[in-house]
C-alpha cells in the first residue's frame, strides 16, 4: 500500500484547529459586550448589574481552570476539548433564553465554566505535538486567534444584533461550536504516534524535538505540589496583572467608547477592534521572539524578555489612556496597552509547559485561573471605581501599576526548573 505524504505537516493542521478554536472562544465572549445595549434594555440591567454578568463568566472560567486542565492531562485533550466545546456552546445558545438578571448570571457562569478547559487543553496538546523550538510561535498564533476573533466579533456582532436581534446571534454561535467539536473529534489524536495520517518523517522529528518527560517516567503532579511551588505562584500573579488590563477591552471597552465619545454601536465596534488587532500583532511578535531567543541558546531570556517588554508597553499604554481627549487618541493608547499585554501570553504559557511538562494542562489551568480572577475583579472594578470616584482615571492608573509589578515578578521566573525539582528542595 502506497502512503500519500501530506502536503501540510500534520502539526500545522493542529495549530490551525486550535487557532480557529481560539477565534470561536472570543467570538462567544465578545458577543455579550456587543449585545450590551439591547440586552440590558430588554432585561432592565444597570451598569453595575451588567458588570456582575461580565464577572460571572470570569468567575466560572477561573474556578474550573485547574480541574479541566487536570482532566486534559489524564484523559487527553481530544475527548475533553470536544466535550467542553459542546457544553459551552449549549450555554452560548441558552444566553438567548435569559429572562432576568439571575438567569443570565447562572447561564454566563456555566458558559465560563465550559470555556475554562480550552487553553489548558491546547497547552496539553502542544506538549505532546509541538517541538520545543516551535512552542512560542504556536502559543502566539493560538492567542492571536482570540484577538482576531474579538476584533471581528465586536463590529460583526453589533451589525448582526442590529439586523437580526441579540438572541439569534447567540444561537448562531452555538451551532458553529457544535461544528468545531465534531471536526476535532474526528481528526485529532492525543499523541502524534496515534494519528493515522501523519508522515513518518514528521513523527520522527516531533518525537526527537519535543520536551522529554522528567526522569523518563510519566508522572502527574498533585495539586499540593502546585500550592507549594514558588514558580506557580509567580506565574499566576503576573497573569492576574495581565488579565486585569486585557479583560477591560473584552468586557467594558465597547460600551465605554459608546458612552464616553457618543458613538454608534458599529462605529464603537470598529474602534474597539483596533485594540484586538494590535493584540494579535503582540502575540505574533512575542511568539517569534520566544522561539528566536530560545534558538539562540538563552532559554530564560526567551521567556523573560518578551514578557517584561510587554508589561512595560502595557503600563505606558493604559496610563496614557487615562489622559486621552478623543476616541482616536484613547484607542491608540489602549492599542499599545493591549499589544504589550498580549506580548506576555506566549512566554507565560510556554513557561507553564516548561515547568509543568506532562502536567502542563493543570499548571497552565492554575495560572489561567489566577488570571481570570483578575478578569472577575476587572469586570466589577471598572464600574464600581467609576461610581466611587466619579471617573475612570483610578482604574487606568491601578492597571498601569499592576503591569509594573508584573515586570518585577518576571525577574524571578525560571523555565529551566520543573516543578518536580522545585518541590523536592
Shape: globular
Overall CATH class? Mainly Alpha
How many domains? The number is 1
Q: How much of the polypeptide forms β-strand, as a percent range?
A: under 5%
Mean pLDDT: 83
Oligomer: single chain
The tally of helices reads 20
Keywords:
mainly alpha; Growth Hormone, Chain: A; 20 helices; 425 residues
Task: Describe the protein's architecture and organization.
This protein is mainly α and about 425 residues long. The chain has a single domain (about 10-205, about 220-425), classed as MFS general substrate transporter like domains (Growth Hormone, Chain: A, Up-down Bundle). It is built from 20 helices and no strands. The chain has helices at about 10-35, 35-45, 45-65, 65-75, 75-95, 100-115, 120-130, 135-165, 165-185, 200-210, 225, 230-250, 255-260, 265-295, 300-320, 325-345, 345-355, 360-390, 395-410, 420-425.
Q: How would you concisely characterize the structure shown here?
A:
With 425 residues, this protein is mainly alpha-helical. Helix content is 80%, strand content 0%.
Amino acid at each position: 500500500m502506497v502512503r500519500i505524504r501530506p502536503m501540510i505537516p500534520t502539526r500545522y493542521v493542529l495549530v490551525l484547529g486550535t487557532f480557529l478554536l481560539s477565534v470561536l472562544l472570543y467570538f462567544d465572549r465578545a458577543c455579550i459586550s456587543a449585545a450590551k445595549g439591547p440586552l440590558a434594555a430588554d432585561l432592565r440591567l444597570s451598569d453595575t448589574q451588567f458588570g456582575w454578568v461580565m464577572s460571572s463568566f470570569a468567575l466560572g472560567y477561573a474556578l474550573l481552570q485547574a480541574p479541566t486542565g487536570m482532566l486534559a492531562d489524564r484523559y487527553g485533550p481530544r475527548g475533553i476539548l470536544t466535550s467542553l466545546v459542546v457544553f459551552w456552546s449549549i450555554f452560548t445558545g441558552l444566553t438567548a433564553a435569559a429572562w432576568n438578571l439571575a438567569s443570565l448570571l447562572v447561564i454566563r457562569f456555566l458558559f465560563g465554566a465550559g470555556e475554562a478547559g480550552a487553553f489548558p487543553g491546547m497547552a496539553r496538546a502542544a506538549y505532546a505535538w509541538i517541538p520545543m523550538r516551535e512552542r512560542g510561535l504556536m502559543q502566539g498564533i493560538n492567542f492571536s486567534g482570540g484577538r482576531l476573533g474579538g476584533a471581528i466579533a465586536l463590529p460583526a456582532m453589533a451589525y448582526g444584533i442590529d439586523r437580526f436581534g441579540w438572541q439569534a446571534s447567540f444561537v448562531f454561535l452555538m451551532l458553529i461550536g457544535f461544528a468545531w467539536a465534531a471536526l476535532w473529534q474526528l481528526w485529532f489524536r492525543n499523541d502524534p504516534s496515534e494519528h493515522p495520517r501523519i508522515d513518518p518523517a514528521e513523527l520522527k522529528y516531533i518525537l526527537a524535538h519535543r520536551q522529554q518527560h522528567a526522569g523518563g517516567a510519566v508522572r502527574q503532579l498533585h495539586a499540593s505540589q502546585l500550592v507549594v511551588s514558588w514558580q506557580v505562584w509567580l506565574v499566576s500573579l503576573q497573569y492576574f496583572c495581565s488579565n486585569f488590563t486585557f479583560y477591560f477591552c473584552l468586557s467594558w471597552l465597547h460600551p465605554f467608547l459608546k458612552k464616553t465619545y457618543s458613538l454608534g454601536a458599529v462605529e464603537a465596534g470598529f474602534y474597539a477592534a483596533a485594540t484586538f488587532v494590535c493584540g494579535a500583532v503582540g502575540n505574533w511578535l512575542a511568539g517569534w521572539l520566544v522561539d528566536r531567543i530560545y534558538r539562540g541558546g538563552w532559554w530564560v531570556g526567551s521567556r523573560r524578555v518578551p514578557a517584561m517588554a510587554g508589561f512595560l508597553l502595557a503600563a505606558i499604554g493604559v496610563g496614557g489612556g487615562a489622559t486621552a481627549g478623543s476616541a482616536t487618541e484613547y484607542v491608540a493608547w489602549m492599542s499599545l496597552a493591549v499589544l504589550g499585554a498580549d506580548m506576555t501570553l506566549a512566554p507565560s504559557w510556554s513557561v507553564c509547559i516548561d515547568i509543568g511538562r506532562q502536567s502542563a494542562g493543570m499548571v497552565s489551568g492554575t495560572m489561567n485561573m489566577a488570571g481570570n480572577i483578575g478578569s472577575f475583579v476587572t469586570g466589577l472594578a471598572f464600574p464600581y471605581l467609576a461610581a466611587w470616584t466619579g471617573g475612570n482615571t483610578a482604574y487606568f492608573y491601578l492597571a498601569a501599576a499592576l503591569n509594573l509589578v508584573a515586570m518585577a515578578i518576571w525577574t524571578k521566573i525560571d523555565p529551566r526548573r520543573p516543578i518536580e525539582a522545585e518541590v523536592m528542595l
